[in-house]
Fold:
Amino acid sequence: MSVDVLFMREGSQRERGAAAYKISLGACVQKIALKRQHWISPLHYTPRFGDQSTQCSLLDPYKHVVVKLSEEEAKESGWRAGYYRIDLNPRQAMERLGEPVKPWELALRGAR
Structure:
């Protein structure tokens, strides 16, 4: 089982697109220092950051690293389902996890 690691921008745009990484919860704890106290919202409320009155552009840089933990994964692990914001920026997360998965690579994996 795996969790989604997402990169998110500031502004009114909600989560979009595929996860940058799909890795195990254990790897999140070990490699990017995910902690239970990083929980920020339940699954039904996608977190948003910064000034919500401004429209986000696809050209804006990603600023936040968020881990999405499903209900199923939460039940198995004893963690709380929802979104967790870790204390790293996207560049730091990539240094620890390597290059993120490209959306077309995910599509190709699903086709197999």
The beta strands are 3-8, 21-23, 39-41, 64-69, 82-85. The chain has a mean pLDDT of 83.
